[in-house]
Amino acid sequence: MISFLISIVALVLGYLIYGRVVERIFGPDTRLTPAMAHPDGVDYIAMPTWKVFMIQFLNIAGNGPIFGAIMGAWFGPASFLWIVLGCIFAGSVHDYLSGMLSLRHDGAGLPELVGKYMGNTMKIIMLVFSMLLLLMVGAVFVYSPASILAGLGGSEVLWFIVIFIYYIIATLLPIDKIIGKIYPLFAVALIFMAIGLFVCLLIKMPHIPEVWNIGNMDSWMNAQVSDGVDLLGLKDYLSKNSLFPAMFITIACGAISGFHATQSPLMARCLKNEKLGRPVFYGSMITEGFVALVWAAVSSWFFYSGGWRDVLPQDAVNEFLAQVNNADGKTLIQYFNAPAVVKLVCSSWLGVAGGILAMLGVVAAPITSGDTALRSARLIVADFLKVDQKPIIKRLMIAVPIFVAVLLLLIWQLANPDGFNVLWQYFGWSNQTLSVFTLWTITIYLYKKKKCYWVTLFPAIFMTAVSISFIIQRIIL
After folding, report:
1. 339 to each of 187, 281, 293, 314, 363, how far by Cα in Å?
2. Contacts of 199 (CB under 8 A, 6+ apart)
């Protein structure tokens, strides 16, 4: 696990060194933050720093650094490089500067910031783009937890309704009433799960692919061949999903994610001091990178080193092997999806506590991402229309059409057999394309302020290439 351990150290050094460099470039000072200048008791509420950090972390994390890293590990050890380099030089910079830019502009949402520095036309485009992404998040992140909960009892429709009711309540109530109370608990659970798995990795020290194996994974793939049958299924997957740009779309939240820029304004309205921005915005992204690295290592062990055999009872192993040779047989990466890997590994390595944490990870995390996405959508529309959000009736005026739109997306998703996969694919592309708009906006801001804009220019160029290449490939294919 040399590449993995070096990557962990690099993340810590990235926060301590590069994080301070980026902080000095922006130059936080002692001016009043929006929460201190005009608290409204609903969205502008000064909260303790540790709580703001936990909420920010859970807002941007959800299932992203887990599921993305598990699927990203199919591209081999290149996933380690992308997570650590992307997190330090792109994702954390993106999150910190978008959060601080919002802080400097009275807690403004992303479309408002884009409009200020890139013009009204781009503002309208960003408004539409952001709303589509946030609505997709609301719809996509209802599906998987409802399906899992239905397996424990009740129907999917029942759980859809329960989750949707929670969405409505969490979106409308003041941020400190529900989000401020339960999010820190879920965030602690997510961090504890990652630390627990990290300790297990250190104890087990499994042999997993290293960075120097990039481009030479034959021995690892051959190890998963049984009776001449390719159990892994990696060659077929990579023939349809090239490393560039697919890996950079698949691993988003653990490296860089445009969705984060829609969440940062929520916490920009709750900070007491500008100098708290680095630990909250940059630090939460580094923490998410740690979670992603852990799951990338776990996934490498699971798929490449035969870890799936260790966490399954023998009869389940035999069941998988028996179906591989069927006409419709599934390979390892088809048979074990990301939620299944999470449940199997956590239950095996962390026992009962791991099973509970896994359930929180695959159920609570996406739900919490969904409700903050809809809260962000409400605030973005309210900012655009200049509608005061203190009166509950005005919150309802904005929120009801948003809920209806998400409900329609959800109905379409259920009616279409491949609805979830289609929605998820375009969610991933939209997510990274949103980061492109954000990075270019920050670059223009830094340029106008005569600050070092190179820290966002290079990530902006790279992510532009990724997003354009991905959509062109999808159109051609």
Report:
1. 18, 27, 17, 21, 10
2. none
CATH code, domain with 59: 1.20.1740.10
Q: Is residue 193 part of a domain?
A: yes
Q: Is 307 a member of any domain? A: yes
Contacts 24+ apart (CB under 8 A), 319-325: 321/226, 321/231, 324/226, 324/229, 324/231, 325/229
Structure tokens belonging to residue 37: 């200048």
pLDDT averaged per 10 residues in sequence order, the chain, 477 residues = 95 97 95 92 91 90 84 90 96 96 91 88 84 80 75 79 86 82 84 90 92 83 76 82 87 89 90 95 96 95 90 90 82 84 86 76 78 85 85 88 86 66 70 91 95 96 94 77
> In 10 A of CB 199, how many CB atoms?
12
Residues 6+ apart with CB under 8 A from 154: none
- The boundaries of the domain holding residue 283 are 33-476
Specify the pTM: 0.89
**Cβ-proximal residues to 238 (8 Å cutoff; 6+ apart), any chain:** 74, 75
Domain contains 13: no
